[in-house]
Amino acid sequence: MTNKATPEPPAHSNVGARFDNWLDTRTGIHALLHETLDEPIPGGASWAYVFGSGLLFLFVSQIITGVCLALYYVPSADHAHTTVAYIVKVVTSGSFIRSIHAYGSSGIIILLLLHIGQTILYGSYKGRRELLWLSGCILLALMLGMAFTGYLLPWDEKSYFASAVGTNLVAEVPFLGPTLQKLIRGGDQMGTLTVSRFYVMHVFVLPALLTGFLAAHVFFFRKAGAAGPIKEDPVYPKLPPVPFYPRQVIIDALFALVLIGILAIVTIKIPMDLGPAANPANTSFLPRPEWYYRPAFQWLKYLSGRWSLIGGILLPAVLALIFAAVPFLDRRLERRPWRRPIVVGAFSLFLVAYTLLGVASYRDDYYKDPGVAAQMHKQEEDARAFMQQPFVPEAAAGSASAALASADPKVLKGQALFQAGSCNSCHGDGGIGTAAAGPLTGAGQKFTDARLIALLRTPDNKMISGGMTPVDLSQDDLEALAAYLRQLH
Amino acid sequence: MELIPQTNNGPKVESSGRRSFLGALLGLSTAAVSALLAVPLVRFVTYPLRKAASDTVWSDLGPVQEFASITAPIAKTITLERRDAWQSTSSQKAVYVLPPKDGQFRILSPICPHLGCSIRWIDAEGKFICPCHTGSFTATGERIVGPPPRSMDSLESKVEGGLLKVRYQYFRQLIPNKEPMA
């Protein structure tokens, strides 16, 4: 060993230190930890800085709970709702894990609002932080995409109709609209391909993009450095730097504890409900999006019809572009909010308008029209009632009772004869074959009915040598037996 | 290599007592967070492990009267219902119902304890024959000759509400004793 960089530690040091050294010489973990944890924060740790790491924590929690939910979930229109009901009603802790995941998405949206609000208020997008801001904008869009694609997956009334409306909006996009909508839905209407597409977006595509942009976001943050308090210069901070570890780490960890505590309490008090399975024939259902999409939903009431292109696509797109361009438009290094009335004012105005729209939406639903309010309450009651019902398993396709229920009586008679004649003792249940005799599956495709019946009456030499005996039955019974054999596959 | 904790040389480096208190606080909150998530997660992921085995599935054979006066074993098809996670599947199995003795019914599994072929009842000979390796059994399922290492396996049965019911099970093959497969 001549190329060893560091000597092995002396024999007298303890096992822990020796292992630590062994690991470090192979991984460089000390330098890595130093790089990760000793990030200088101008002015030191603060409770004000918890939102970013809180988001990271919730994102990790969503990944873990999401991976677990995928253990039981089946992304197809005919099984999605049953499997979610199975998770919620049968699997141990299923309701808890699903609720944490579902409420976690709301938690992420709330934290995103706080994180963005603080960034704007603190002016911490300034000072060579344009890419940090842009990567954040993309993360925001991706998170909203995660919330939208995840909402559909339970395939209950609520998610089905809300996603039907959501994907209808896509058709408003100029030129490409109808094609884009068909692509997203996997057809003209919502169906199995819609679930499959949303699932793939929700568990593969968007999480992969999120992880990538999250890495970029953290990288840009570390490159620019923490901005510090509002009076700090965003490029050359003057306050003495204090390392991220241990104080900020502990504050962040305590915040994570608060977050998961709140989620757990909400989950236990009000478990996320699952409504009855989607019934596209239901004409009375009033679809409503999640609370954070409610203001947008309300907005479309005011600008509908020929204005919907402006209300649904154009205006949000312009707003999004202006939002993304904020660090390019606001070039001064001034960070104190009271000296930046335009940006802070515009954002506050947006928040107020957005909140008012949301409030208006709920007011419209519950206080304006008694018919609508009654329907909203009925929908909530239906969901509660569905949650109270015991889990009803689905009959597996190809299972004997499912097949029997729909079979032709002649085939059923043939099957009874097949079993009564103990044909199954050699040819197996359902003619699948055993060690004693070959399978009969596909025999019906090889021979005509007349030939099948003739063979049953007088087996050929090969069949006789295999132990087949002539079948002594009436013509009617033989025809039934042939009909049964014909449909074996 | 000396392991000196590298800290930023700013003026606010924590004293070692404070650092270890903060370290303990960190450990505590990390443990609390993981416990809050980990316990339900582990229960969720390992769900079927702690579920009590509910394999006591009774299948209907038919009204008792139907079998009261039979003189030879008859083959009867049962529909076996099974829960497979969120689905219920059913498959059809054959069993032999023996003529009752002192009012007691006996049900035999048609699966040969040798290699698992289906045993057939040959009325003309009054015997059960396994056609694969010509094992044969008496009308009550006792082994006569052939490679099967034991007699035919009887299945648990009961009469409930005038219906004869059977609990279908599989048994390990090639061993002299009847041993149910889990």
List keywords for this structure.
heterodimer; A: 489 residues; mainly alpha; two-stranded antiparallel ribbon; 22 helices; 3 strands; 64% helix; B: 182 residues; alpha+beta; six-stranded antiparallel beta sheet; four-stranded antiparallel beta sheet; 2 helices; 19% helix; elongated; disordered N terminus
Major β-sheet annotation of chain B: 6 strands, antiparallel
- Extract low-pLDDT stretches of chain A: none
Rounded to an integer in angstroms, the radius of gyration calculated over CA atoms of chain B is: 31 Å
- Total strand segments of chain B: 10
How would you sum up this structure, described in words?
The complex is a heterodimer of chains A (489) and B (182). Chain A contains 22 helices and 3 strands. Chain A has a two-stranded antiparallel ribbon. Chain A has helices at 15-27, 29-37, 50-69, 80-89, 94-122, 130-152, 157-170, 177-185, 192-224, 247-269, 294-302, 308-324, 326-329, 341-368, 370-388, 400-406, 409-420, 423-427, 443-446, 449-457, 461-465, 475-486, and strands at residues 40-42, 241-243, 394-395. The two termini of chain B are 57 Å apart. In chain B, strands 1-10-9-4-3-2 form a 6-stranded antiparallel β-sheet. Chain B contains 2 helices and 10 strands; from the N terminus they run αβαβββββββββ. Chain B has helices spanning 16-45, 65-68, and strands at 58-63, 74-84, 87-97, 107-108, 120-122, 127-130, 135-137, 143-145, 154-160, 163-167. Chains A and B meet through helix 1, helix 3, helix 4, helix 5 and strand 2 of A and helix 1, strand 2 and strand 3 of B. Strand 3 (394-395) of chain A pairs parallel with strand 3 (87-97) of chain B.
